[in-house]
């Protein structure tokens, strides 16, 4: 089969020499494809070293509870069970994966300590000679819970008197440079609402989304003769996993080696440091190779999903379709722990108010802790759901004004030289041209005035 | 219950190994025989990454207790390329960009092999139906379906060439003047 590619439209780059356009439009074979079609690509679970032990977690059956008792004696009595780990076995049990870029405080235990904050949180790790024995052992750990009130809604979590989910923060929000949320203040939105011909306000809500990679999260840790640990993992972020694992183990980074890069689907869901630290501790304590791989159920239930978001957008609009003010209140449901959500919330703020030049912008973006499964990275996280809300808002405004939605966007699209709400001058903008081209391709007629618009003209607003 | 000896003919080799009762065929292939192409995506019959051919039929090997198929013949992705040459399905997947992460690929290819064995000229709808039990979460279904149709076309062409060669051989007692080298062997192997 010949792969067909479209010729490059160079209209927008007339001054660039044609020979420089030699990547897009050329066909390059993937370097891993031959391994995939012959079954020779090596995924982490394709390794089965002699003496391999299997690890399975005993997980919380409560959303929010104090751990009164944890009894591992029945688990230890299961034939084949070698060891049961608790938080006391983990050298530095409390961590947060983005510590390496300065996100603090540490707020998540590798194994639960004192209380559980979400359904499915790992409490004990059972290490056994067979997978079946590890499973049986995990099922026989007995935990006594003292139920705590749980909160599952971002706005309820921020209300007065809500139960505190994560004591490491002391309140149910992540703190940004002393503020309770990420904020944008640009111009005067209230004055814009007063001056507007129309004010539109709508609410948007997304659900958590599970990546469901075809290969579940997992690793095989193999102790080396020199005392180092070799970690075979399907992490999407080898060095990130290595550094965080070293911090949790309290070992120098060079005691660990990661073998990875072959990932059976990740989509952002495999950047958490979920399985390697506890598997490394198990390998260190037993001196044997250890495999820890999520079942499909665990992948669906406890691996981080994309965060659910709730977004309120209120716009000040003139009769001819110019948006002169936009006020946004955005909530990211981080679940019980930070993971990548404080960063995702910052990305959401950075993306507002969308690719439009709006002279008055006000935004509060909250990263909120609840008793739901901790959320984390997924394809454009922080941006994708915001875009869904912003573009839905644009369509609804167009409908309310009886205006062509593309013309509404063209009218408000940012141009080179416009000052954005973050006080950066827009450069290299192309929204106008992209909309014009898309309209042409689908046969959507635009009047002359709109076809003549350009990203290069009319900026400096 | 005690483990028992199981005999399988795997990729045309006789293999004998011990298995505890209830051991999935997938685990025996991977752990006892070291054949790692078939993957475990769910262990519950819902993803198809573990698909192998059991006496020519595609099965989800995570759901087959190995002692119940003692004596059967099994084909895995490792047994598809002969003598290092990719077969039509593999080449079509490779050249048609039908792999992304590659985790579903072994199951997809085995399902495609089974389809083309019983239906050399499937419609697009038949291909879609055939792979409906194979999940690709990278969602590259378009290129996968294209690749399977492409593989079918390649195979029909080769089979036609091989038949011509056999005709010529039957009539003239020689096959030397036939078209593509090697195809008659491949086609004969498949038909055997
Ligand atoms: S592993 Fe067998 S169907 Fe998923
Ligand atoms: S290529 Fe990744 S699951 Fe299909």
UniProtKB/TrEMBL annotation, chain A:
Which keywords describe this protein according to UniProt? Molybdenum, Oxidoreductase
Residue stretches making up the Aldehyde oxidase/xanthine dehydrogenase a/b hammerhead domain: 38-149
Q: Which InterPro entries match?
A: Ald_Oxase/Xan_DH_a/b (IPR000674), Ald_Oxase/Xan_DH_a/b_sf (IPR036856), Ald_Oxase/xanthine_DH-like (IPR016208), AldOxase/xan_DH_MoCoBD1 (IPR008274), AldOxase/xan_DH_Mopterin-bd_sf (IPR037165)
User: Which Pfam families does the record associate with it?
Assistant: Ald_Xan_dh_C, MoCoBD_1
- According to UniProt, the name of this protein is Molybdopterin-dependent oxidoreductase
TrEMBL record, chain B:
Pfam families attached to this UniProt entry? Fer2 (PF00111), Fer2_2 (PF01799)
- UniProt keyword Iron-sulfur, yes or no: yes
Q: Which InterPro entries match?
A: 2Fe-2S-bd, 2Fe-2S-bd_dom_sf, 2Fe-2S_ferredoxin-like_sf, 2Fe-2S_ferredoxin-type, 2Fe2S_fd_BS, Beta-grasp_dom_sf, Diverse_Oxidoreductases
> Record's superkingdom?
Bacteria
| Sequence ranges assigned to domain 2Fe-2S ferredoxin-type in this UniProt record | 4-80
- Recite the UniProt keywords alphabetically: 2Fe-2S, Iron, Iron-sulfur, Metal-binding, Oxidoreductase
Protein name in the entry? (2Fe-2S)-binding protein
């Amino acid at each position: 089969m010949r792969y067909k590619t479209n010729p490059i439209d160079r209209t927008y780059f007339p001054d660039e020499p044609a020979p420089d356009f030699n990547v897009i439009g050329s066909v390059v074979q993937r370097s891993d494809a031959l391994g995939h079609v012959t079954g020779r690509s090596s995924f982490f679970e394709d390794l089965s070293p002699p003496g391999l032990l299997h690890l399975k977690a005993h997980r919380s059956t409560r959303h929010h509870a104090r751990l009164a008792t944890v009894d591992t004696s029945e688990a230890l009595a299961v034939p084949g069970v070698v060891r049961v780990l608790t938080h006391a076995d983990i050298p530095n049990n409390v961590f947060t994966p983005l510590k390496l870029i300065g996100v603090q405080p540490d707020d998540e235990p590798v194994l639960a300590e004192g209380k559980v904050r979400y359904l499915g949180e790992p409490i004990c790790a059972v290490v056994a000679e067979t997978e079946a024995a590890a499973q049986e052992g995990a099922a026989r750990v007995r935990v006594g819970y003292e139920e705590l009130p749980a909160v599952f809604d971002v706005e309820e979590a921020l209300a007065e008197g809500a139960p505190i989910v994560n004591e490491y923060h002391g309140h149910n929000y992540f703190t940004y440079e002393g503020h309770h949320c990420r904020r944008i203040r640009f111009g005067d939105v209230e004055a814009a609402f007063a001056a507007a011909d129309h004010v539109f306000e709508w609410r948007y809500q997304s659900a958590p989304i599970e990546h469901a990679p075809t290969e579940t999260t997992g690793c095989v840790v193999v102790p080396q003769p020199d005392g180092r640990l070799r970690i075979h993992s399907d992490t999407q972020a080898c060095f990130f996993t290595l550094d965080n694992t070293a911090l949790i183990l309290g070992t120098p980074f060079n005691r660990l080696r990661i073998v990875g890069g072959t990932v059976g689907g990740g989509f952002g869901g495999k950047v958490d440091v979920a399985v390697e630290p506890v598997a490394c501790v198990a390998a260190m304590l037993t001196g044997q190779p250890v495999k820890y791989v999520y079942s499909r159920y665990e992948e669906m239930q406890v691996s981080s999903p994309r965060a659910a978001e709730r977004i309120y957008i209120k716009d000040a609009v003139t009769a001819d379709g110019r948006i002169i003010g936009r006020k946004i209140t955005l909530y990211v449901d981080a679940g019980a722990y930070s993971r990548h959500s404080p960063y995702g919330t910052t990305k959401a703020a950075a993306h507002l108010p969308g690719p439009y030049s709006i002279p008055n912008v006000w935004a509060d973006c909250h990263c909120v802790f609840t008793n739901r499964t901790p959320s984390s990275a997924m394809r454009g996280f922080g941006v994708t759901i915001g875009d869904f809300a912003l573009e839905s808002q644009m369509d609804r405004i167009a409908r309310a004004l009886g205006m062509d939605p593309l013309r509404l966007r063209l009218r408000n699209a940012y141009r080179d030289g416009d000052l954005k709400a973050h006080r950066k001058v827009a450069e290299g903008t192309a929204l106008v041209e992209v909309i014009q081209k898309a309209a042409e391709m689908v046969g959507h007629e635009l009047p002359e005035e709109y076809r003549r618009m350009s990203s290069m003209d009319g900026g400096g607003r | 219950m005690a483990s028992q000896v199981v005999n399988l003919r795997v990729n045309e080799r006789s293999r004998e190994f011990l298995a505890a009762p209830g051991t999935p065929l997938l685990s025996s292939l991977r752990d006892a025989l070291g054949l790692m192409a078939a993957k475990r995506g769910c262990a519950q019959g819902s993803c198809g990454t573990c698909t192998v051919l059991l006496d020519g039929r595609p099965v989800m090997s995570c759901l087959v207790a190995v002692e119940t198929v003692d004596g059967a013949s099994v084909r895995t992705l490792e047994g598809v390329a002969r003598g290092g040459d990719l077969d039509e399905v593999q080449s079509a997947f490779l050249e048609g960009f039908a792999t992304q992460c590659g985790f579903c690929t072994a199951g997809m290819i085995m399902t495609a092999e089974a389809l083309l064995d019983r239906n050399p000229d499937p419609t697009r709808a038949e291909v879609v139906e055939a792979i409906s039990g194979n999940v690709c979460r990278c969602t590259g279904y378009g290129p996968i379906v294209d690749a399977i149709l492409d593989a079918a076309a390649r195979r029909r062409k080769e089979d036609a060439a091989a038949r011509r060669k056999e005709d010529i051989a039957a009539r003239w007692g020689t096959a030397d003047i036939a078209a593509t080298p090697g195809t008659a062997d491949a086609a004969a192997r498949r038909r055997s």
